[in-house]
Write a structure and sequence with these properties.
Order of helices and strands: HHHHHH
Radius of gyration: 16 Å
Distance between the termini: 24 Å
Low-confidence stretches: none
Number of strands: 0
Helix content: over 70%
Number of domains: 1
Shape: globular
Mean pLDDT: 95
Structural class: mainly alpha
Largest sheet: none
Amino acid sequence: MFMINLKKSILAGLFSMITIGMLTFLTYKTTLGVFLIASFGSSMVLLYGYPESPFAQPKNIFFGHLLTSLTGIICLNFIPLPLYILIPFAVGLGVSLMIALNVTHPPAGGNPVIVIIGSVSLDYLINPILIGSIIILIFGIILNRLILKKKYPL
């Protein structure tokens, strides 16, 4: 059992490095924009450590990040509350929406915090959210299905 967990942990760490490395390279070594957000690091835990989890499935990763980021942007721009009230409200709303729409991806719960603290614009939904999520999913499918021979997505 220990050897199975060791192999799984090493591969999850390696694949996380590769995926986040690509997003970091695109962010810092090209002029294409920002592709990296903190919650993508948490997505790696599910995508490579527990790809069989419903929370790690493509629709959850993609729509979870999109929905909670959009929630943060809408709250930031249309709800005039102090930050200490707005941030928890946006997180709670984002979590509720993910669960209600069956696209729960726990790492995405932090996106409203990132969005509101960073005062991001609507462009943030395209890059890093949409494009970054697609890159993550491409790597997740390639690495899980082709290299690890796992049935992913389920």
